[in-house]
Design goal:
The protein is mainly β. 4% of the residues lie in helices and 64% in strands. Keywords: Signal.
Length: 422
Amino acid sequence: MSFIPPQPGAAIASLSGAIACAVLATSAHARIEPLSVSVQQDVSYDNNYLRNDAFRRSELISSTTLQLGLDKDYGRQRYTASLAATAQRNRNFKVFDNDGYSGSLSLSSTVGQNGYVSASASASRSLQDPNERTGTRTEQNVTARNLSVFGLLGVYTRLGLSTNLSTSQTRYSLLEAQDRDQVSARVGARYNVTDLLSFDLGVRRSQVELPNVDVSINRINRTDIDLASTWIITGYSNLRSSVAWSSERRPRTAGFDFDGLTGSLSWNFAPRGRTSYVVSVSRDTDNSGRGDSLNFIRDDGLGNVERGTLSNVSQNQLSTALNIGVNHALTSKVNLNGGLAYRRINDTFTGNSSSTVIQLSDITSFQKASTDITSVRAGFTVAPRRFVSMGCSLEAYSRSQSRLGAAYNGESLGCNARLTLD
């Protein structure tokens, strides 16, 4: 999910002022030179690259990224754009060598004295995250395209109306059963209690199509009634939250319908200037994000590839996540950072497997499975010059055993250097 003036005439002033302040605050961070070019080199070592404790193999990965950026203010409008190309090369497992890209374009503008509009588009291609579904590393690419339009209109004192339309498309190069298309629309009312506290009440309707899944289970209709808030507690602390009652319906497989609370909470705190903390929690379904049947690949790195299919009339897959981050400015040029990430995935599914990798007998009733994914990291960054930065990070990760994947754990060490010209 995403969430993002007592007399007529002067009545719009309060909300319009809030819109203008937001735009000006954003513009204040814009670079004097609107164009930038950066090159980044990453080198990492992973001692369980295949995410398989029974066949642990280490790997050295090199990744080079070239990025172009634009950040330009023109009157009331602001334009931003970025384009990046990445080449990843592996020392041992050449099957995972990959060339990817990412690009984005956005436009925002105030309209009159009481309106604000923005539009954005993005596209990317990259290797699939090994934590999707079974936790196995696969050599397939994931291509994603997104488009979003947002509008806000002040109607009376501190009250405004908002609307948001978005579409997304995801394609998997090997596992086409996971392909998905999504369209969503949201309308809401925003009220600024003060300049530091606001609430946004809205309704969102979404439809997800799974084009390569059996026609009986290829659609999910979702409705969210949500309440979002933003609270700037002090100059050093702010809180953003959203809670929603979410309903998901599958026209022909009602057994997997979902009704429940979803939402997120994010707290940023910088009590002493040098040290800052970020804490976030979230709860949401992944039913629209992973496909309604599971195809998988197991590659042992020696040319032995096993492919299989778990025919499950997709899960109610519910994820609960906690993320904690800390950053400490040791000096004006040196920063220390660390973090903890935890995610629990609860699945309800039914089906059978065509492979020996996942052993499931013929299942005629709903089955349940849960998976815990944890990572802890610590690192540092150094910026000897404004246009040069470098850093290293050490991470320990683990995933618990579930009916849909084996347990694993490991450690990785990564370092990078970045040069930016603007």
